[in-house]
Queue: 3 jobs
Job 1
Amino acid sequence: MVTVREETRKGPWTEQEDLQLVCTVRLFGERRWDFIAKVSGLNRTGKSCRLRWVNYLHPGLKRGRMSPHEERLILELHARWGNRWSRIARRLPGRTDNEIKNYWRTHMRKKAQERKGNMSLSSSSSSSSLTYQSCYPDTPSIIGTEGQELHGGSGCITSILKGTPPDMDGYPMDQIWMEIEAPEAGFDGGKDHACSSLSGPPPPCTAWDYYCPPEACWKMDDEIKMAPHFGYSEGVGPCF
DNA sequence: AATCGCCTCAACCGCTATACC
DNA sequence: CGGTATAGCGGTTGAGGCGAT
């Protein structure tokens, strides 16, 4: 009878939602998104939470225009791997697959098409890679070196953020998991408790200002070994 | 000043891969 | 080994912003 069963929220995220999500992720780490969605008090799906985190709230995200270097890198990597956006993204610290995907769609494809139009002759095989490669004939073989080169690219928010590095991998949260497994055990509403401090005085800036993301986060790669550190270990952060 | 069209980007959807039981 | 749950990926869509007319 009571079946309150609120509908899952969709659409743009509010700042408050961001904060709730950030706090919850800080607590539990970047996994069990369904669970995070539940305990955060957000009426979102785990999938949605993950996406929001990965594409917008994740520490270390660069924002703003792609540098020429990144642009070339995208071209190069796309030529090599095709639409493997996530894979390409791993080569571009601070950039998300979604961002790269969008960027490609808007900028590069257009360029490629323009180029294609110009040189409508020749190249009957219309593999996209062929086309955009020709946009940057001078593209050096950068694959393999970008790991270092892109590090600390200008504009990385890491330069202005301070805080506790999030955990990406070995995350000793078992205990907390056990504690939290009892849903109503106090966290219901990360919004009301865990993040209570946020509802009072104005937050520092945006949700991600709570983070100090090591750029190492973005070195997770098939080939590049991830730095074997960063965990929540000490100090969970300003939310608590 | 108002309208239109284009561009950008955040977010959703569906599918696949992987992990876990 | 099979089934289920969870995470991740790539494609697509739609709202909002911005410049051109």
Job 2
Amino acid sequence: MVRPPCCDKLNLKRGLWTEEEDAKMLAYVSKHGTGNWTAVPKKAGLKRCGKSCRLRWTNYLRPDLKHDGFTPQEEEMIVRLHAAIGSRWSIIAQQLPGRTDNDVKNYWNTKLRKKLSEMGIDPVTHKPFSQILADYGNIGGFRKPGTRVGPLNKDLKSAIMLKSEPYPAARQGFPNFNSQLMTATISPQKEPIQDTLFNNNHTDNYPSDLLAELQAIKLVTEASNCSNIETIPPPAFAEASLSSSSVSYSPTCSATAAQEKASLDFSWHDFLLDDAFLPTDPQEQETTAEYSSKEFASQKQKGILQISDTDNEAATQESNTKAKAIECAVISNDFEASSSSDFAFVEAMLYQEYEMLLDFPNLEPFYY
DNA sequence: AAGCTAGACAACCGCGTTCCG
DNA sequence: TCGGAACGCGGTTGTCTAGCT
């Protein structure tokens, strides 16, 4: 492992902090405050680098930090935000007073990720594993009969190893199973994430960059909802990737009666055995994409995508930049053809790997 | 009692961004 | 405008501890 040059040169201490060091840090910060961390260790009489001091302060010593366990509400918040924006831990932590990004990240990695896996949900995409498997098996219609299912992510694999039955935790009374978490993640959401986080009553509470993120999230999630009007997706899973171009949408769409009915009639058992997400009719998919991009452009012109907070020009600009990125993905021909060209590319990749694995049966597929 | 393992969490590392002279 | 220092972030590693064999 390569040590930072500063620590090597100055023979600075590393590793866990002692109580004495903590006391020195606290004494110094309470007297002088934070700022210029490179000067802090010297002034505080610590043989640490500034970076280490800053980390110790922000992650542990800060007086406003909570050191107790996460509440179910906090869990739910983390899951929802992770579904919406991915591993942007600092942004997620901002929504949880007294929690640091490190806290949230550690909690996710040690608890929540496992919990979701055990519930049959891929913690990366927040989709049921069965759907991912179905998607995988149906990409471009590619899969040779009788062949192995190729590379899967680690969480999916471990979940499959655990049990093929859907949501074993929920069905078998998993000891620490949290029903709220289940609701937040997999049930048909009565209150979609974009509504929960983005409505006017709440936006004041979010920093501008998060607002920008949320605006993009709103666009993407609405896109997901609207692109499946014929085959309603049971949960309104928020797409984690903002750069995803595999969605088509109309920003103004709202839940239809058909959607509501479908939600009520929804059965997880059926869903998990079903391949409901995949477009069945290529023409319909194309039409939807075309309509959506036009509709999007129209809405954009009307200024619907602008952030209402006129006091914050920077936020507006940033938001527009991000919204534009989404717009590009939606409007470009590449997007409209995503189902064919992207799949063709993926198909080619998968086939290459398939052939390679045939030639080298002992070779581990990537994704590990 | 000793060794092993997994879980929890603290700390580190590298890299991108921001700030400032 | 540029370059270096400082800062912030996300991923990864290290360490400690409890439970099990």
Job 3
Amino acid sequence: MSDKPENPNYKRIWATVLLIPKGKVASYGQIADLAGLPGKARLVGRALGFAPKSIKVPWHRVINSQGKISFPIGSEHFEQQKGLLQTEQVVVLNGRIKLKEFQWQPDLSELLFKLEY
DNA sequence: TAAGTGACGGAGG
DNA sequence: GCCTCCGCCACTT
């Protein structure tokens, strides 16, 4: 059996993912940035893979920057993630999600709205 | 120590 | 929108 790696940044990543509101999604890179780990998107993916069930991290709300689910279409993981997202009213079409509609935009959304342009 | 791997991202075609 | 290439980084072999 292989021991599971314990990178201290994992907790930071899990905590950030927990902030994503229901019905919204965020990209791996976005989570990395918010967690104070810019450029470490791949680390986010790994962290989610090691996330203990006891923390109940909404891993399904994290997708790649292209707005797609990062599992092969049809795989067990893919179907599970798609199902969970649809449960939250997020539209998944061909493994794709319209970031324009469903991407989480913390605080900044309000600013952009006020600025008008 | 070097090479391979992957739940990534961005630029280009 | 799709694909390829390259840079990136933690971890494995």
